[in-house]
Amino acid sequence: MPLRVFLIVLFGILVLLQTFSLPGQFAHMAEESPDLAHLRWPLTAVAVFWVLCIQVVIVSTWKLLGMVRDDRIFSDASLPWVDVIVGAIVAAWVALLGVFVALAPGWGDPALPLVLILLLTGVAVLGLLMVVLRALLRQATTLRTDMETVI
Predict the structure, then answer these.
(1) In terms of residue numbers, what domain contains 10?
(2) pTM for the whole structure
(3) Which residue has the higher pLDDT, 49 or 149?
């Protein structure tokens, strides 16, 4: 139950971030740095997309928690929700790769590319971890189905 409370709080914070903070932040950036004003809407769109990816993961996690509560997690019905999580992570990674490639020509300081490479690697590891967990869930589902057939 505490996890569900934190998921609700996190989702609410992300909605506020998505609707107020991010657009306001990039509008402020455009005012403060007119030479970067052309990046206002692309950066806003990418940031809101990343938040949307996180929200998709939260909703999928919520659904999986309901399946755990109902003792249905080891069924084929849980696999599509894990696939949605993997898809959201892949979509966020592709968008991050796009940002990396778009910003590549203007690098002067090595800090930004290193941070982006770190983020790309971290999101890739998270995605691969979810693929492994999906395989484990698939295997556990098969074993449970086999056991129910025997019993």
Answers:
(1) 2-150
(2) 0.90
(3) 49
